[in-house]
């Protein structure tokens, strides 16, 4: 095993950075120095920055509540698996809010206060997207919430349904798994750099004068991570690009689902979800983050850009590792890549 995978700095046993005898905190961030500027004690002091949610730990309203803590922030410092770090770090995204200083913590839409970054339009778009969710959309929100069990699993269909050669399938699996790791590293670097608020905390604040805004709740619990960019959207667009490049464009994208397979009793009865092509699947994946109230549209758009960029870098690197594989670009001199340099 690559030693960098064993000692990747993620603090898996939870002992790093704590005094002797302290209870371990697995994956506790001891490296990045990240700390949210907002929180249960301090309140919201920076409107556009991420704020941890306070959640009912048991789900029964018995008075046991926990505040979210950003987990796996140190993932941003992990060694890339395939794409050299210097190439990953070039894939920087523009800030989601260029005028964050213009928003006071008590900003409310519709009161005449300036809204240079369009927070109110973005908030209303998320509220509208989730106002009338169909059973299909509710199912997709949960299905895409686990991309490793949804879109990434489609690679196997290239072998079983698409008639791909075993060697080409192995290359596709290599590319997809390397992409998933390297994209996660860069997504986390961007999440920490921008530290953007999620709809779950921003919408009830800036639309609190409207019934829909004041009671806004995402369709599934949001993860304890900043909003921008949306990781799930990056995975879907990047994996779709890799599949398409390596011969998966003709896959039958009708996916059978058992009743209750994705959780919360969805789908209500056994059936299937279908997509016309990989592009429509990836688009639905990104949009599902907005339907479910998990991300703002700008976060989804940014991660489409980032996911495609990382996927192209992965294919460029794999081209020198598996020359002759149909769909790969030509191997460039020095393009073999590999890990952290």
Can you give a write-up of this model?
- By secondary structure, the protein is mainly alpha-helical.
- α3 packs across α7 and α6 crosses α11.
- The N terminus is likely disordered.
- The chain is 37% helix and 4% strand.
- The chain has a single domain, classed as Vanadium-containing Chloroperoxidase, domain 2, CATH 1.10.606.
- A hairpin with an 8-residue loop joins β1 and β2.
What descriptive keywords fit this protein?
single chain; 341 residues; mainly alpha; Vanadium-containing Chloroperoxidase, domain 2; two-stranded antiparallel ribbon; 4 strands; globular
Would you count the extended β strands for me?
A: 4
**What is the CATH fold-level name?**
Vanadium-containing Chloroperoxidase, domain 2
Discrete helix count:
11
Q: Return the string of H and E elements.
A: HEEHHHHHHHHEEHH
Portion in beta strands: under 5%
Q: Helical residue percent?
A: 25-40%
Structural class: mainly alpha
CATH class annotation: Mainly Alpha
Strand arrangement across the biggest beta sheet: 1-2
CATH architecture: Orthogonal Bundle
Number of domains: 1
Could you tell me how far the N terminus lies from the C terminus, measured between alpha carbons in angstroms?
18 Å
| Contiguous runs where pLDDT drops below 50 for at least 5 residues | 1-6
Multimerization state:
single chain
Structural shape: globular
Largest sheet: 2 strands, antiparallel
Mean pLDDT: 89
Tell me the Rg in angstroms.
21 Å
